[in-house]
Design goal:
Layout (H helix, E strand, L loop, with lengths): L1 H16 L6 H13 L13 H12 L4 H9 L2 H4 L4 H23 L8 H14 L3 H16 L6 H21 L3 H15 L1 H13 L1 H21 L5 E6 L2 H11 L10 E7 L2 H14 L1 E2 L5 E2 L12 E6 L5 E8 H9 L1 H11 L6 H17 L22 E5 L5 E5 L4 H8 L1 H6 E6 L2 E3 L11 E5 L11 H4 L3 H14 L1 H18 L4 H4 L2 H11 L4 H10 L4 H17 L3 H11 L14 E3 L7 E3 L11 E5 L5 E5 L3 H6 L6 E2 L1 E3 L7 E10 L4 H12 L3 E8 L4 E10 L2 H12 L4 E6 L3
Parallel strand pairs: 2-6, 13-15
Antiparallel strand pairs: 1-2, 3-5, 4-5, 5-6, 7-8, 9-10, 9-11, 12-17, 14-15, 14-16, 18-20, 18-21, 19-20
Helix pairs in contact: 1-3, 2-4, 3-4, 3-8, 4-6, 4-8, 6-8, 7-9, 8-9, 8-10, 9-10, 10-11, 15-16, 18-21, 22-25, 22-26, 29-30
Bound molecules: manganese (II) ion.
The site of manganese (II) ion has 4 residues, from loops.
């Protein structure tokens, strides 16, 4: 039997690498696989077990550890034979079973090519499910062997498999630096997905093969000679690039085969980094390097750990070729990527902490790798999509049709339902997870299949409790929306109760605080059309009643303290002819003629500052508001003359004042900068600056600054007016 010989070869190979190796577990695994898969055949007609033997052999060739090789041998046993996970654990222990189980889970991920987003989610899902990186390596090798034997499948399956491989597996192989597997997978996919291009390219390359092989041989011999002279032991190798990358290059650059520069590549493998640079020097002396094509990935490794020196040279007859120079260690990493790293790690961590932390270290590395993808030079690749905390923040679950939904970790079937559609969420009454009915607060896990049970009854809808259960903000906001709309009457009623309760709690009566004139500004501020709208939102819980009652209470307090307005006016009258009393200033530095301790407010329409000529206006219930005498609003106010009152600035005031100024200028790109500089020099705090260009190309700059005195403002205005292109500087009045 052919597969028995292959297994023999695998054993021989492992023994050659390590004569003391214990092969008993692997032999046991082979016997189990052999007997369990006994009645199964591959599509080729061969016994099925030839496949796991091949997978185990490939893993051994990559120097993967014994548990991985054994798991490779057993990787189809749980899925395709009567052996259960528990039985396997009994026979092979936790570690191997864990690996096989991981591969089995990945196998159950359905594949659909509907959209790019799906592929992206699937790739992420793969990584998040395979909590041990060895699971991915085994899965990739499994896929590679299946792709190598794809000729026995029918055309439809070939295309589906190839597409899935290209979308899910080759990007993963790339991420993990497993270049050799990636290239072979890509070429196989290319062959099945674009047979015409593929055959055409293969024919063209084959036709030139003799000629090219002779060319490479000539170059290699010349280099070999020089390296011998320099006493450098090196492995030299020449190869054409893999088909799919040539194809991609031809398509991307719209070029014919003979226009592709680095069609031919030679590789020089040496022992030390020092030698790499020496070889580079020697080759650059022999051939003219093409400018801009030298890359030092030794000093700057790629995110997937790839290291090499790359350079393109003009060879004999003017034909360019690429040279890659690297050490053996780099070569290993270049070919098997993460698997190589994994091995080095193992060597270094002897006798240290237990297995778990070792694996954590490996996972950490993958996470870093994925995080670093954004720095990858080719943005075209899946850089952004892979930049995620794959193992912590998200779960990936399936719809019954096999679409993948990505939800925040801790999500429930309710989150899932709303992720599908608002209507599904609003009508849901239950959920099945992996076929079993689960409570609505059940936490979903990556790989779960979720089916939502809905009811068409009009009486159904989300429950308020759901807001405390759901995890995703999307579900939360959709549920809130529903309540806002569906339960308006109820919310208004509830809102009124809450407000009443809050007013009572603060020690007031409803009628004291609920006054139209105070409610109106609140409605305006929050953009409500009616008091009921406000109650609806309070009842629903979006705005706290306390916040609203606080505003109302403030208005109420103001109305009594400032109130005595009649009194105030009377006092004004009686004090008119009296001498001023010793001044008493408020925070604003304003003295109201003849009145002490009254509520004073600087009006916000003209923002008066000390030095401005000012006038006071006795408001209804809000004390005296102070305007500049040139404020346009004062003109209309003075119609009610008996409400105007004399005010003046106190000699000293510690307060600061906000002023708005507007600068009109001819559009000029550096103006804003110059103004900002002037303000910085003046040391006046700038509160806001806003520039816009008018249709007729004037520039308007609104500036808000803080000053203590009018003179500061005057100085600044003078400086700004002196700038070139400035037409006008004025105080703003709203
Ligand atoms: Mn398999």
């Amino acid at each position: 039997m052919e597969y028995v010989e292959q297994f023999e070869a695998l054993r021989e190979n492992l023994k050659k690498k390590n004569p003391n190796i214990d092969l008993s577990v692997l032999e046991k695994a082979f016997n189990i696989a052999d007997s369990m898969h006994k009645d199964q055949k591959r599509k080729s007609g061969e016994p099925f077990v030839i496949h796991p033997v091949a997978v185990a052999t490939m893993l051994a060739d990559m120097d993967m550890d014994m548990p991985s090789i054994v798991a490779g041998m057993l990787h189809d046993v749980i899925e395709d034979t009567p052996v259960t996970t528990d039985e396997m654990r009994e026979m092979f222990g936790d570690e191997i079973t864990y690996l096989v189980d991981g591969v089995t889970k990945l196998k159950r991920i359905p594949y659909s090519t509907k959209e790019e987003l799906q592929a992206e989610n699937l790739r992420k899902m793969f990584l998040s499910m395979a909590s041990d990186i060895r699971v991915i390596v085994i899965k990739l090798v499994d896929r590679l062997h299946n792709m190598r034997t794809l000729q026995y499948m029918n055309t439809d399956s070939q295309i589906t498999k190839a597409r899935e491989t290209l979308e899910i597996y080759t990007p993963l192989a790339h991420r993990l630096g497993m270049t050799k597997i990636k290239w072979e997978l890509e070429d196989l996919c290319f062959k099945y997905l674009e047979p015409e291009y593929y055959n055409n390219l293969v024919t063209q390359i084959t036709q030139r093969r003799d000629q090219q092989e002779a060319y490479i041989k000539k170059v290699l011999e010349a280099i070999r000679g020089k390296l011998d002279e320099a006493n450098i032991t090196a492995f030299l190798d020449g190869r054409p690039k893999h088909f799919y990358s040539i194809h991609k290059k031809m398509i991307a650059q719209n070029k014919a085969l003979n226009q592709i520069y680095d069609l031919l590549a030679i590789r020089v493998i040496v022992d030390t980094v020092q030698e790499c640079y020496t070889v580079l020097g020697i080759i650059h002396e022999m051939y003219t390097p093409m400018p801009g094509r030298f890359k030092d990935y030794i000093a700057m490794p790629k995110p997937n750990m790839y290291q090499s020196l790359h350079t393109t040279l003009i060879g004999p007859d003017g034909q360019p070729f690429e040279a890659q120079i690297r050490t053996w260690e780099m070569h290993k990493t270049a070919e098997i990527g993460i698997a190589a790293h994994w091995k080095y790690k193992e060597k270094g961590s002897k006798g240290g902490s237990g297995k778990t932390s070792e694996y954590d270290g490996k996972l950490e590395w993958v996470r870093n790798l994925l995080d670093n993808q954004k720095e990858i030079e080719d943005p075209d690749e899946f850089a952004q999509t892979f930049k995620m905390d794959l193992f912590t923040d998200e779960v990936f679950v399936f719809t019954p049709k096999g679409d993948v939904k990505c939800l925040p970790k801790g999500s429930t079937p309710i989150d899932f339902a709303y992720a599908i559609h608002t209507a599904v969420g609003n009508k849901m009454v239950g959920a099945r997870v992996n076929g079993e009915i689960k409570p609505l607060n059940h936490k979903l896990r990556t790989g779960d299949f979720v089916e939502i049970i809905t009811s068409q009854s009009q009486n159904n809808g989300p429950s308020r409790d759901w807001l405390n259960i759901v995890k995703s903000s999307e579900a939360k906001s959709k549920i809130r929306q529903w309540f806002k709309k569906e339960c308006r009457d109820e919310n208004i009623e509830r809102g009124r109760e809450i407000i009443e309760r809050e007013i009572k709690k603060q020690g007031y009566k409803y009628d004291q605080l609920i006054k139209n004139e105070w409610i109106e500004p609140i409605l305006k501020k929050y953009k409500f059309l009616s008091y009921d709208d406000l109650l609806n939102v309070i009842g629903f819980g979006d705005i706290s009643a306390q916040k609203i009652v606080n505003i109302l209470r403030e208005e109420y307090v103001k109305s009594i303290s400032g109130s005595k307005e009649e009194e105030l006016l009377a006092k004004m009258e009686s004090n008119k002819n009296k001498k001023e009393k010793p001044k008493q200033t408020s925070d604003h530095g304003i003295i109201v003629k003849g009145v002490e301790n009254c509520l004073v407010r600087l009006s916000r329409c003209c923002n008066p500052v000390p030095g401005d000529s000012i006038v006071g206006y006795v408001t209804r219930g809000r004390g005296v508001s102070v305007h500049r005498t040139d404020c346009p609003n004062v003109v209309s106010m003075s119609e009610t003359e008996n409400r105007m009152i004399d005010v003046r600035w106190a000699e000293k005031s510690k307060s600061t004042y906000i002023v708005d100024i507007c600068i009109q200028a001819i559009d000029n790109s550096t103006l804003l900068l110059q103004i900002a500089k002037l303000i910085a020099e003046s040391k006046l705090p700038m509160k806001a600056i806003n520039a816009r260009t008018t249709r007729d190309n004037y520039e308007l700059i609104d500036l808000t600054i803080e000053i203590t005195d009018r003179s500061e403002l005057d100085k600044l205005v003078k400086k700004i007016s002196g700038l070139e292109n400035v037409l006008d500087v004025s105080r703003t009045v709203k």
